[in-house]
Task: inverse folding
């Protein structure tokens, strides 16, 4: 978080009203005419009308295969696709040549994991600078480090990488408050560590992990020459993540996904240092990512094209760029301030209900975007059903984070998560709907 983000004023009621009017789906009713209270933005955000219009306009006016054809439509489609890449680069504070379009954040993380796996194939690193080649080759004795709070998307690909290469997976634990146990960092990150992959913000707890240049995790990784990979899927809609891509950040690669940042489904982003992208073997192969093709073999185009095989998701990329422009126009410092206001209000209201236990840091400044909780003796699925009957949409379950729930000794949780359009009144509606739970399940209120 930057100083500007801390000092910004929250969005006013009038501004929130104007923003909500931009999101058509928020106007609908559910469950017998109840107003929709959408508190599941951590799973997927709603889309403003400008994003819907941008995607529709691409299909209505410019639809053609990108980077193929010499006709006008093909040129327009290619220009729109590359303009979208430039917008993403500005959002990240990076160069367009460092931005790879993927299907989603999960694919971006798999792309990275498979690059390490593919690096061991004969000839895969021919012509690659030896300093990069040494960092990309994994084998028995090498270690990959994740954390206990990871979404499965940033855990399972690394588990599979270790299975394929013989490397060992290790992890940084989580304390009772849902923070990383950095006190024991030296026991986990060491001379054998080749990759440290961790989330910027927990999708369950909302915990914001310190990933600045002087942060303990990044410093420990850099000290042993390990590559640092960041899952920014939960932070990108709420925070200015440009500090993570700065030259001195210590972060080597980062992913986020379009459908959580006001954009369409089916598009995500991998950002990585240019030198890393140039060294990495490709993940998918075929058309568009090639340089020269002969029957005897092929050579590959420079990045980012090297990692974008096939006809790309052009309309979705245009929609994503429009969503990022929307966030940028509002101002991510003010989006963050609004989120902090929502977080404080939510934590205050839940604290007034002693039959609820909130998971994660008690300090609202240590978290963004999501509040997960459990009710005494009531399964989260039942809590979610009560809320749904009142028109309040939340997520229940393990949120693709089984190991974290096991660490916190809960089978599952109920999670309310915020978007740029979430209002304080919706948090009040959540609390009011939760007050039905003690009566229905016989809890002491």
Result:
């Amino acid at each position: 978080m930057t100083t500007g983000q801390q000092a910004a004023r929250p969005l006013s009621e009038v501004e929130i009203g104007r923003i909500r009017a931009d999101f058509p789906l928020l106007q609908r009713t559910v469950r017998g005419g109840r107003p929709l209270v959408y508190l599941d933005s951590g799973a997927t955000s709603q889309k403003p009308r400008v994003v819907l219009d941008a995607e529709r306009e691409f299909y209505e006016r410019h639809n053609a295969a990108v980077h193929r054809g010499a006709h006008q439509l093909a040129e327009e489609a290619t220009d729109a696709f590359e303009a979208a890449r430039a917008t993403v680069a500005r959002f990240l504070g990076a160069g367009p040549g460092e931005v790879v379009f993927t299907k989603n954040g999960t694919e971006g993380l798999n792309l990275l994991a498979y690059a390490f796996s593919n690096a061991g194939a004969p000839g895969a690193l021919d012509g690659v600078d030896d300093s990069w080649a040494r960092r990309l080759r994994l084998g028995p004795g090498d270690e990959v480090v994740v954390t206990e709070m990871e979404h499965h998307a940033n855990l399972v690909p690394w588990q599979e990488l270790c299975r394929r290469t013989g490397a060992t997976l290790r992890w940084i634990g989580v304390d009772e408050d849902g923070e990383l146990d950095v006190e024991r960092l030296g026991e986990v990150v060491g001379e054998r560590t080749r990759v440290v992959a961790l989330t910027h913000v927990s999708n369950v707890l909302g915990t914001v992990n310190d990933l600045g240049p002087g942060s303990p995790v990044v410093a420990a990784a850099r000290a042993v020459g390990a590559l640092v990979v960041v899952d920014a899927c939960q932070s990108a809609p709420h925070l200015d993540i440009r500090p993570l891509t700065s030259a001195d950040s210590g972060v080597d690669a980062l992913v986020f996904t379009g459908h959580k940042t006001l954009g369409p489904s089916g598009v995500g982003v991998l950002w990585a240092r240019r030198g890393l992208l140039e060294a990495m073997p490709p993940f998918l192969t075929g058309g568009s990512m090639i340089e020269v093709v002969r029957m005897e073999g092929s050579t590959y185009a420079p990045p980012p094209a090297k990692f974008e095989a096939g006809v790309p998701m052009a309309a979705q990329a245009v929609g994503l760029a429009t969503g990022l422009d929307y966030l940028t126009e509002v101002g991510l410092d003010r989006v963050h301030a609004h989120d902090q206001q929502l977080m404080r209000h939510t934590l205050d209201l839940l604290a007034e209900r002693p039959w609820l236990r909130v998971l994660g840091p008690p300090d609202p400044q240590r978290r963004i975007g999501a509040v997960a909780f459990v009710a005494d003796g009531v399964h989260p699925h039942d809590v979610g059903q009560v809320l749904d009957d009142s028109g309040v949409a939340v997520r229940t379950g393990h949120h693709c984070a089984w190991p974290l729930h096991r660490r916190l000794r809960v089978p599952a949780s109920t999670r309310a998560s915020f978007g740029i359009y979430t209002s304080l009144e919706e948090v009040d509606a959540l609390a009011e709907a939760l007050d039905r739970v003690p009566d229905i399940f016989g809890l002491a209120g």
In short: The first helix runs from residue 3 to 7.
